[in-house]
Design a protein that fits this description.
Length: 118
């Protein structure tokens, strides 16, 4: 199983970016899909999660600005980020709770850099 993230980049404050993360491999089903981020000198934090049935949750600092969603048919999770702030600058990682031929475990994507300039 592999998770491939894309969509990061450089954007000015107030701008928007959309991250995508596609899971591939011998997958039976995916439960929770999550986005984490790790800013410079900071610990990795959970930003948003979406269950298989579409239940979502967010860390307080991104509520009303970020929207997490998923396409179960394509094993893909998205993170729409609006009204970006310099403090959103971080490497963003996707994570998924996967049941695959090899069993059940969490998988991580490779990370995608988001840089927000002031």
């Amino acid at each position: 199983v592999q998770l491939q993230a894309s969509g990061g980049g450089l954007v000015q404050a107030g701008g928007s970016l959309r991250l995508s993360c596609a899971a591939s491999g011998s997958i039976y089903t995916i439960h929770d899909m999550r986005w984490y981020r790790q800013g410079p000198g900071k610990q990795r934090e959970l930003v948003a999660r979406v269950s298989r049935l579409g239940t979502v949750s967010y860390t307080d600092s991104v509520k009303d600005r970020f929207t997490v969603s998923r396409d179960n048919a394509k094993n893909t999770v998205f993170l729409q980020m609006n009204s970006l702030k310099p403090e959103d600058t971080a490497v963003y990682y996707c994570n998924a709770d996967v049941i695959a031929v090899s069993g059940r475990r969490d998988y991580w994507g490779q990370g995608t850099q988001v840089t927000v300039s002031s």
